[in-house]
Amino acid sequence: MPVDYEINANKYWNDFYKIHENGFFKDRHWLFTEFPELAPIQNQNHLKELLSEKKRSEVPECKSSEDGSGLKIEQQDCSSVSLGHKTQPTPVEENVTQKLSHLEICPAEFPGSSATYRILEVGCGVGNTVFPILQTNNDPRLFVYCCDFSSTAIELVQTNSAYDPSRCFAFVHDLCDEDKSYPVPEDSLNVIILIFVLSAIVPDKMQKAIDRLSRLLKPGGMMLLRDYGRYDMAQLRFKKGQCLSENFYVRGDGTRVYFFTQDELDTLFTTAGLEKVQNLVDRRLQVNRGKQLTMYRVWIQCKYRKPILSNTG
Question: Which family does this protein fall into (predicted)?
């Protein structure tokens, strides 16, 4: 049975979005409070002060503000320098992976290549994170990428009236597919965001998924995560037959969910070569007065940064 849920995972998520369309989740405007990295334009004056302060005090480039946002703008300038050589691909180099390695040499060939701040949301659903980001930040230098396992979800994003192809690129992608590349080169993203998505994949595939994503981040770039914590109300409500493996469950609609500890997530990110900026548990008591229910929620929120490359020689 667990194998069936893995093989048909795409079907279960497509069915979910066909039933609920864009009416299930609310737009996540709270994200900007928790993750100010998603609205960098609001902090422009602060960033400029940081950068000028760096120049005056001659602080090494690896120093940054606590949230790393001051560093991201500066880091973009470094990464926009084109490489001094160009490789000639062989005739067989027509698959996506080889095209993307070619894009690292010719940065103008990928969507959003002229942007100075790039955000990728993995597991975007119907755009409850993407559209608030685009609406909050009208900076023309911002470009948002978003992908989801479900082609139905991506179709709903692309047909949304707020979808602007000049500022956003939505695409279908399986986070666990090791053979399918992302449509951006390595070291090109400022922020990668994972909101209640890592928990939806098989635990033994999580590390490789995070490894692949970390390679897309620029030095100084951030991976932001919010997901289910161990002993969240949702975990305690599952019945015995719904447990697929330790702390990994299947819902009634066939979609799956894992419940993390802080240490597990820390291991995933640090093994991928990222440095901890934040790893906290958010415990909340929610009261549904209509149903007279008290719900004890446990979420984990993380920020991990890709280290700055040291200047050798």
Answer: Belongs to the methyltransferase superfamily. METL family.
